[in-house]
Write a structure and sequence with these properties.
Shape: elongated
Structural class: alpha/beta
Helix content: 25-40%
Number of strands: 10
Strand content: 15-25%
Oligomer: single chain
Number of helices: 7
Length: 236
């Protein structure tokens, strides 16, 4: 530690997170640790809790050279997890990072638009959507792109049903949809909710893909094991 202080760097990346449950955060962490290891850096995990006023104290005292903030579901783009006084370069994994940090994100809009165009090209009159939580930036980006692609194609824009990223919520949201609609194409905002959608569709006597085409998002490791294997958007 004394040598690191004398050199002015610690060869350590601090990863700030509220939750590692979202698939995107877990995949991002895998990429961070792999890239860090290739360059001789170690990774320090820094959890933050519910009090932003206190979260910056342990972070500011950590022996790190750079901070990477994993954002799970935040309309603030991670601003609440970044201490402006932290004197190290900071990168937020978000499509709307705070002004005092750099940001990098997946192009959710491009992926969602490609899903809609793919399904319309198969002959579906429109595409229904099982959206993610209202307070999630990725969910909002995917929902807006889904709607924009349908409008651009001159197709009807159905009402959305919403889940919380879990299979259970995808199941309930799809049951809610089926109570009033008979979709022929379903874009689900993530693969876990798509698993729940599969169950709800089967219970309703609908076949995949003969009666309903289903596309998820994230390309989870289990996607090929769905029956039938899930069509999904790969998030690099």
């Amino acid at each position: 530690a004394a040598r690191a202080m004398k050199r002015g760097h610690f060869k350590t990346i601090g990863v700030v997170y509220r939750s590692l449950h979202p698939v995107g955060n877990r995949k991002a962490l895998e990429g961070i640790t792999r890239a860090a290891s290739e360059r001789g850096y170690s990774v320090l995990l820094i959890p933050v809790g519910g009090d932003p006023a206190q979260d910056g104290v342990p972070l500011a005292q950590s022996s790190i050279d750079v901070a990477i903030v994993l954002v799970s579901t935040s309309l603030g783009g991670g601003a609440e997890d970044v201490d402006p006084s932290l004197n190290v370069p900071t990168v937020v994994l978000s499509s709307a990072g705070p002004p005092h940090a750099s940001s990098v994100s997946i192009d959710d809009a491009l992926g969602a638009g490609e899903v809609v165009r793919h399904l319309l090209a198969l002959g579906h009159p429109t595409v229904h959507h099982v959206a993610g939580p209202e307070r999630s930036l990725p969910a909002g980006n995917r929902e807006r792109a889904w709607r924009a692609a349908l409008v651009e194609a001159g197709r009807p824009v159905p009402g959305v049903v919403r889940g919380d990223w879990t299979p259970e919520s995808g199941y309930e949201a799809t049951r809610e949809l089926l109570a009033t609609e008979r979709p022929t194409a379903l874009f689900v905002a993530n693969d876990q909710m798509a698993l729940g959608a599969y169950r709800a569709l089967r219970e309703a006597g609908l076949r995949i893909p003969e009666d309903v085409s289903v596309v998820g998002c994230d390309d989870i490791d289990e996607a090929p094991a769905f029956a039938p294997p899930l069509t999904t958007v790969v998030m690099d």
